[in-house]
Write a structure and sequence with these properties.
Residues 171-181 have a biased composition (Basic and acidic residues). With 215 residues, the protein is mostly helical. It has ten helices and no strands.
Length: 215
């Protein structure tokens, strides 16, 4: 794990907000900011507003709480970043990948949904599920997953794969939009050719029969 990821542990609630987008951690982050700024104001700008001993004691308590929370966040960070590896449930991503390669779309979708239930922001699982949706005729759902991945910081290393998958979705959309019209035109041309061939056969019935007999 990259050591820079632990920088988010230095602010209470930031790691959950940054990596998982949990809004439940937002009040903690805002509350810590309010308390910290209030103590800085009371300690350095207006030290006479309250008893200096009381302000100093509050600073010590906040500092100790900050250290404890930083240690707690650092211990929980691996679980936030790689919950599948630390979960008691077996990792089914390899099975989902195998089912995808075998074009077993129902099995792949079921396994990938189970993986995402444990780790909702896993880029490889989201990419594969987008491919499953694309192969099963659900381009809108596939595009929605790609749009979701574009908003994830953790998905930055997968930008090339994300854009490639989006290009495939656009290609399939264009094919589905123009495919039926082309099929209708091809069918109409085939019917017209068939009518011409039938008319020609009727006009040249004896000669065709002679050719067939000769053959």
């Amino acid at each position: 794990m990259n050591t820079r990821n632990y920088l988010t542990c230095l602010w209470p609630g930031l790691s959950e907000l940054w990596w998982l987008g949990r809004l439940s951690a937002l009040p903690l982050a805002i509350g810590f900011a309010i308390v910290l700024n209030s103590l800085l104001v009371l300690r350095f700008l207006y030290p006479t507003w309250l008893d200096p001993l009381l302000v100093r004691l509050a600073c010590y308590l906040v500092f100790i709480s900050w250290i404890c929370w930083t240690i707690k966040s650092a211990k929980e960070l691996p679980k936030l970043l790689q919950p599948r590896l630390l979960s008691e449930t077996p990792d089914r991503f390899p099975d989902a990948h195998q089912a995808y390669l075998q074009a077993d779309w129902p099995a792949a979708e079921k396994l990938l949904l189970g993986v995402l239930a444990i780790e909702p922001r896993d880029p490889p699982a989201l990419l594969l599920l987008s491919g499953v949706y694309r192969h099963t005729g659900r381009p809108e759902s596939a595009a929605a997953l790609i749009d979701q991945m574009r908003l994830l910081e953790i998905a930055d290393p997968w930008r090339i794969e994300i854009e490639a998958e989006m290009a495939r979705i656009r290609r399939d959309r264009e094919t589905s939009d123009h495919g039926p019209v082309e099929d209708q035109e091809s069918s109409a041309n085939a019917d017209s050719d068939a009518e011409k061939r039938v008319s020609g056969d009727e006009d040249q019935g004896p000669s065709c029969a002679a050719d067939l007999t000769a053959a």
